Amino acid sequence: MIGIVAPGARVVIRDAEWFVRKVDTTSTGGHSIHAVGLSELVKDREAIFLSELERDIKILDPAATQLVPDPSPRFRDALLYMESLMRQTPPTDPPWEEKLYIGHKAAMDLVGYQLDPAIQALQQPRQRILIADAVGLGKTLEAGVLLAELIRRGRGKRILVVTLKSMLTQFQKELWARFAIGLTRLDSVGIQRVRHQIPSNHNPFYSFDRAIISIDTLKQDSAYRLYIENCYWDIIVIDEAHNVAQRGSSSLRSKLAALLASRSDTLIMLSATPHDGRKASFASLMNMLNPTAIANPEDYGPEDIKGLFIRRFKKDIQHQVASAFMDRTIIKTPCAASGSEESVFEAFAALQFRRLDQRHSGTRLFKTTLEKALLSSPAACIDTARNRIRTLEQEAARTPDADMQQAIRNDIDALEALIDALLQITPGDFSKYQKLLTVIRDAAHGFGWKPNDPTDRLVIFTERIETLRFLQEQLHRDLKLKAGQIDVLHGTLPDVEQQRIVEDFGKEEAPVRILIASDIAAEGINLHYLSHRLVHFDIPWSLIVFQQRNGRIDRYGQTHQPQIVYLMTESRHEKVRGDARILEILIEKDQQAYKNIGDPSAFMQVYDIDREEAITAVAIEAGKLAEDFDRELEASLDDDPLAILMGDVDLPTGGNALDNIQDMPSIFADDYAYVKDAIAFVAQTRRLQATFDDEQQFVNLTVPDDFGPRFKNLPQEAKAALRGSNEFVLTSDRRDIMDEIVRCRKEELAWPRFHLLWDLHPIVEWLNDTVMTAFGRHEAPVVTLPQGVLGPAEVIFLMTGLIPNRKGHPLIHRWFGMQFQQGDFETVLDLHDVLQRTGLGRTPIPNPNRDIDTESLAQLLPRAVREATTWMSANRDEFNAIMQPKLQHHLDELSALKSRRLEKMQLDFGDLAPTAYLQIARKEAAQRRIEALFTEYQTWIKETITTEDKPYVRIVAVLRGNA
Fold first, then answer.
1. CATH of domain 1-60
2. What CATH code is assigned to 329-333+430-598+606-639?
3. Dihedral of alpha carbons 232, 234, 240, 243, sign
4. d(CA 298, CA 848)
5. Closest residue by Cα to residue 183 from 161, 150, 163
6. Strand, helix or coil at 409?
7. Alpha carbon distance 856, 852 (integer Å)
8. What is the pLDDT of residues 612-670, one digit of tens each?
9. Which DSSP letter does residue 354 get?
10. Closest by alpha carbon to 162, among 221, 105, 249?
11. What is the pLDDT of residues 689-708, one digit of tens each?
12. Per CATH, which fold does 95-313+650-660 belong to?
């Protein structure tokens, strides 16, 4: 084999010609070559070749390229051939100047702030980033932009997305509808489907290059954890990443995430609440992104994690999207307690437990837990009391102590008396429920909601499942709802049922009008498509939960003003009234954060739901005055440890992300023009049915059977939405696609019937591969330009030059022209100059179809190749002159960090006696892990940034003047 094969090369393997898509380094030091067939017998077939096994891999010598005339009208075949190569040329900007070439063109409204994460990630040595924007800013879209850019660069063939069960369909659909990135959904049904399609001992992640799965499926299925250990991806996305951080001990989720982090060069993590206040917990996420970044998880600062995350709040980007976010309306609705409720409050306040709260260990008194349930609903409080009675009865049966048994009996009697009082609260006496009915029905004091309007849906949040069930039953009866008009969402539902409920709620055709949800629905899912009204039936005790719940409807893309209602119990009893006022303070703090601060967690500074609830519980247990609680929260803002840790990070674009947009060179007016001509070319040799609407830029295409293998990576639901089994409708109009996404929510079939026409769609990729066969092995077309465009004896060899890194990935990729005059080499022209001089793509080129003296042109080839090689080597020298100091800086930083890590290890173990064999062994093992970690990363940095010294050049076409 001649040198390292690089993406873009045409090679001969096993006497067939292949186009190299991607090259990876294997664990044994060789290379795996991912290629698509060009020769007739292997056309369109994808294959992976191992350099250690394929001893006869031939990179075609550019100087031996056969120059052939192009007989097609207006040189259509040559132009298509050149364009297909341009579209498969990865951008290779220097890392510090990375531009966006495609992600911003997805089916989305172009907003600058959503491009910043992709730009920041692309400017790092490795694309590993935590996108930590606040709830509702569009993290899925931000991830999609980065995914699109990486795929365009040839670094996104294999993708794994890990998310929550309830979000599988939502995430999958967003990436397909807006970016044409297809993911196979491996939920419980999808897994069974996969297992029926492949042999039982096969790894499903080998069968599907792009998949989406829930973290809990991976956690529960040991076989899938084994599959992960034997797989490698180009990109891994972990959604709601705070769920995989280490919290004290290393959970199975965090261990899985750490394993996944080691199985991909690129790691994208998403979380609106990435920090729980513990440095070590956040460090676990940062170490997944860069295991060499932090020497001491308990002692690090902004400089250690710079570039690894990006975090903005609505207030930070409001100026960019003044019309995209509607200012929310907050309504605090008092609910005056009924007589039977007041009796319960009196009984509750008088409760004295002899046994239960003796075991209080600084977490939360049982009486506080009971009050939390009481403030939710009588049903929730009865369930909590009954559960504790069962626990106490079991304890009484185990203890022989008579006094203890009497104490337990006392507590059981007290709880049973409370239950008796709670059972007297009928739905008519339940003030909060009656107020909910008023809010829903009454136009003057509430929503004036009508169940016959499918575009006005309600979201009701409650923490307790018993409250949820009560509301489901009572609302169905009192609002006289029809079957299917009320649905519930909670964590114990199967994954496919959770996905179905979320999808139906955003689909106009579905009968559901009211969604009652537990806080499982507070993370990630979109509920804003047909709903702008949300009711907190019970008030959260955590500010994070406020943010998460409200973010379901108050988010990017909401077209109505969000209306958020808090139902506040008002009691005459001093204790209950004071506790309710504590919760009202939390409502005020959430709104204050929304308007001025951004992150409501800054008030309590523990960045964890459970710990925030504990702070609220302590305030309630202590009988703290609401005013004192308010002052304590305000004082906390003066010293925010999270702000100190994360620092004030400047955006890589300075806030002007739109300045980093750039177009790839093209000789066609747009994607539609290229696809239309490409289909006409393919139709010459294959049976294709295609119609075009030039005004609307729609393409209706029925693909041939040999497109079949590409169907594998399409979501099953996307296939089902096709008009026919092989019939695709594509458009390059982004607004039409976004309108189609909205239309899908009005009909039963919720997946778009037509797709985005752009480079990443499988149809366009298939056309690219097919058009490349316009000319045979090692051939380049000759294009004769009209008189006056080039001189009569002027020739331009249109060429590409590529220099890979040691991993075989392209680092420098250039298109250029080698200009000859009168048979003598003149100069090198960049692609822009070539296109400007020749008018390729701007003006039609008549094809005279006259005989061409290709022999005289062929004689110039060796000189053109030599000059091109020299020019590319100069490009490499210029690149190295800039990159070597940066490489050395990276290596020096790694060396210093390694020293700090070893010092920390030495402190952890201290001075060991010679006889402490076990401790010595552990210390030596820790040192070996550190050495291996840094050696691996240093090797990766060197192999990624260090260029190979043999440029690969290719003759694409010959442009000659008309003599």
1. 2.30.30
2. 3.40.50.300
3. positive
4. 75
5. 161
6. helix
7. 9
8. 999 999 999 889 999 999 988 888 766 555 665 666 666 666 668 888 899 999 999 99
9. S
10. 221
11. 899 999 999 999 988 876 76
12. Rossmann fold (3.40.50)
